[in-house]
Design a protein that fits this description.
Layout lengths: L2 H11 L11 H11 L4 E7 L5 E7 L4 E7 L7 H13 L5 H9 E6 L4 H6 L20 H13 L3 E7 L5 E2 L8 E4 L11 H17 L7 E3 L9 H7 L4 E6 L9 H20 L16 E2 L2 E11 L2 E14 L2 E12 L5 E12 L6 H4 L5 H15 L11
Parallel strand pairs: 3-4, 3-5, 5-9, 7-8, 11-14
Antiparallel strand pairs: 1-2, 2-4, 6-10, 7-9, 11-12, 12-13
Helix pairs in contact: 1-3, 3-9, 4-9, 7-9
């Protein structure tokens, strides 16, 4: 893969109509209508709340690749990158795209959980996590994906997700901007031939990403759960590559991360297109550090609470409000946090944070932790360090 060309291609093919974290069916419908003039688009069925689920098919090569995104509706970064990827693949003047489509047939479900995407939630309309429904298949979306896998019999599966801001590369102060996993197919986490194939592809993607986000790639935990789709596919002998789109500094809209997912998709698919992937070169997969959980969104260092020097960790919760995602700061830990890192760190200079509850709040029964949170948020708001909506530095 030409490292320099990836950035150039992303700038050319980035889909301008998709941005931010809130991506749902209404955003991609015009894109599907436009794509239908170039590629095959089929209606697979409907979700539990009767929203359409589509399958995009392009290419006519013998290698069959299946992709699905937004199995969790609030994990939208990979969906944006998929449409950037599609813009490149449908450019008939691009020689690499033409080579890929001659050797591969790609099947893409852009949003598997349209109800979850609309509500901006991990769960579907019935409050079920589709990634824990691979065996029982209690939900219409799960049945649709299972039927597609059965009918297509993919040679490779790309399971596209997003991850929280808490993840680090190992125990370092580097966020896991992209993480990969070759899921286990049994509780012993046996390194089977199909896992080796997935590992080899992941190793190639990692080698390219290291040029763009040095040390910023992590390896997701491969604990086995047969109810998960990736684990089920590995058990079936299908090489499965799980993506986790994570955090990049000051990139809460995940636009920088989007570019790295595009790079990885292009690298992985080109590698499959060009080679007979045997899994013989899988060992470098284990050079990728496992994810740690060393980050909070904000750490306020060295403040005094109850006469003790402590650090205060703040984590954003994401809330959908008037078709926008708001990032609401919540205190999650008060302790000595020297082994943790903040995506943003504030020096408290031993400022005393009082547990004093104002007379107005006195009228309501509130536990001390909530009172502390209000007091701290007043302190932060007063100093204009952040607001209830994400402040971009």
């Amino acid at each position: 893969m030409d490292i320099d060309k990836l950035s150039h291609w992303f700038n050319i093919y980035k889909e301008p109509s998709l941005s931010g974290r809130y991506i749902h069916l209404e955003h991609i419908t015009p894109l599907l209508n436009s794509l239908s003039k170039k590629v095959e688009i089929a209606l697979l069925g409907t979700s539990e709340n009767n929203a359409p689920i589509h399958l995009i098919k392009l290419g006519n090569g013998p290698k069959k690749l299946l992709f699905w995104s937004q199995m969790h509706g609030n994990e939208s970064t990979t969906t944006k990158a998929v449409f950037d990827f599609l813009n490149m693949l449908t450019d008939s003047s691009n020689e690499l795209s033409e080579r890929i489509l001659a050797s591969c047939t790609l099947y893409i479900i852009p949003i598997l959980s349209p109800d979850g995407a609309k509500a901006y939630t991990r769960l579907n309309y019935n409050q079920v996590d589709l990634n824990r429904d691979a065996q029982n298949k209690t939900q219409k979306e799960s049945v649709i994906l299972s039927d597609v896998i059965r009918d297509i019999k993919p040679d490779y599966a790309f399971n596209l997700h997003g991850q929280r801001t808490i993840f680090s590369v190992g125990d370092t102060n580097i966020p896991a901007t992209v993480s990969f996993l070759s899921p286990a197919g049994d509780k012993e986490r046996t390194i089977t031939p199909c896992r080796k194939v997935a590992m080899e592809i992941i190793a190639e993607m990692n080698s390219v990403l290291q040029h763009h986000i040095p040390n910023g790639v992590g390896r997701y935990d491969d604990g086995f759960n047969i109810n998960c789709v990736g684990d089920t596919l590995s058990d079936m002998g299908i090489p499965t590559i799980l993506f986790e789109a994570g955090h990049y500094k000051e990139d809460y809209d995940r636009e920088k991360t989007r570019s790295y997912i595009f790079y990885a998709l292009m690298t992985g698919v080109k590698y499959i297109s060009d080679k007979n992937v045997t899994g013989d070169q899988y060992e470098e997969y284990f050079d990728i550090p496992e994810n740690g959980k060393c980050f909070f969104d904000i750490i306020i260092r060295d403040v005094v609470v109850d006469n003790k020097n402590v650090d205060i960790a703040v984590q954003y919760t994401e809330e959908l409000s008037e078709n926008h995602i708001k990032f609401i700061p919540k205190i999650v830990k008060i302790a000595d946090l020297r082994k943790f890192y903040g995506h943003r760190e504030i020096v408290g200079k031993k400022r005393v944070i009082s547990r004093y509850i104002s007379s107005e709040i006195d009228r309501v029964q509130i536990v001390p932790e909530i009172a502390l949170e209000r007091e701290l948020l007043k302190f932060l708001l007063k100093d204009e360090l952040f607001s209830t909506e994400l402040r971009k530095s």
